[in-house]
């Protein structure tokens, strides 16, 4: 009615810690991102396959970006706070002070990043046990999970191992910093630490791999109090954390999520009515959320557990409460594209021309491909150029971290045309890898009709179109580009009690922006590309067999 006072808008803060930066968003109950801020964080690479960070540096960045997005907002309207982060390992002593995860003894570098592959021999030994918990990670544990990293610390840094008070997954470290409560999220411990929602920790596994120390203290170091994602942690924000973050003391803080899972939460439950999609009027189990940034994750849910060879899971309630999660992945996607483009001899020319046209290097490359395609569809330019994208090993579905990247079809040309073509072939290889993962998931029992994309690479129209064309499935892009932050805010909204469930918050706060349909006229070409793609890894294994015989 005219003159009636409108109810105050309710806001939630989502904080996302990625590989190279921390971002925060102020999100309204409608799912609209009202304010957004970003700050870089430091990464150390002291030797090949070793990637480290500082938990103090990460928390300082969290505080900085949060203060920025809530500046000028009525504190009484901010209802909840949710965190997501990469599944990196944070190591602290009994007084929560940082411990070195390196031989140099640099204590401030107390985080082993998710993409760190130092524990290759440890994971090989763990997988050799064939313990029953491995059936929940696709049959083989990844070097990017936490048990091999814990074993590496015990075997290589005995001094740090003796002093350890707590090992945190980074998302859980953040909720502890905010609340003072050491509870862990079901998402992190199930997906990266072998916890199961029905049996908890399996003593026999930790004893078998040589980490019986963790069993002795009833798992206090890795978590013996587990909460569902979105559940309120403790009594909310502590006075100290409230001051650090610029938020009201006592507001609800949610049990956290891994960053990819937050992205899944932000997109997979959106209302699709009126978009003529095959998943309309179908259960959420017909959808896969593809979160694509530095790496990519493929999140599919099911009502009953589905065991997919080479794909992590099934994990119960790890993303959407009450549903089982399978998680495929590619260890290097955005990082691979950057590596290929920036390492090319024509990169300085690209950089100069992109700057002169006031475009990003990738917008410029996409435009350049349009110029050189002539009458052909852009994708057909790579008829003689093929890439196998596992420059950082294969996470899914081959679970082989020793695989290497391959490029077939190089010439002596060194110009911008050639850079554009290798860029295109790399994007296609990533999309072909997604097709490989989806086919394995479908063969195991998933029924997937639609892809929901989010993350940095979803802003690249070429990347999106190639995924639609190569998989043959429509791609849904969310209205809010920052779906991961919306997912984190959904956690805060649930912890506040403003929504009855995560599913309700997902439906109300997740919004569809655009739908990209596959071009079915190109199917034959991409079927042939896929055939070549699978031959590449066969040849790699063949020549390895010859060289090792």
UniProtKB/TrEMBL annotation:
GO MF annotation, one: D-ribulokinase activity
Domain Carbohydrate kinase FGGY N-terminal: from-to ranges: 11-266
Pfam family, one: FGGY_C
Membrane is among the record's keywords: no
GO biological process: pentose metabolic process
Claim: Kinase is one of the keywords in the record: yes
UniProt KW keywords: Kinase, Transferase
Cellular compartments per GO CC: cytoplasm
Domain Carbohydrate kinase FGGY C-terminal per the UniProt entry, residue ranges: 289-495
Cited CDD domains: ASKHA_NBD_FGGY_D-RBK
PANTHER family: FGGY CARBOHYDRATE KINASE DOMAIN-CONTAINING PROTEIN (PTHR43435:SF4), RIBULOKINASE (PTHR43435)
NCBIfam families from the UniProt entry: 5C_CHO_kinase
Similarity annotation: Belongs to the FGGY kinase family.
Protein name, entry field: FGGY carbohydrate kinase domain-containing protein
UniProt source species: Thryothorus ludovicianus (Carolina wren)
Lineage of the organism: Eukaryota, Metazoa, Chordata, Craniata, Vertebrata
The encoding gene: Fggy
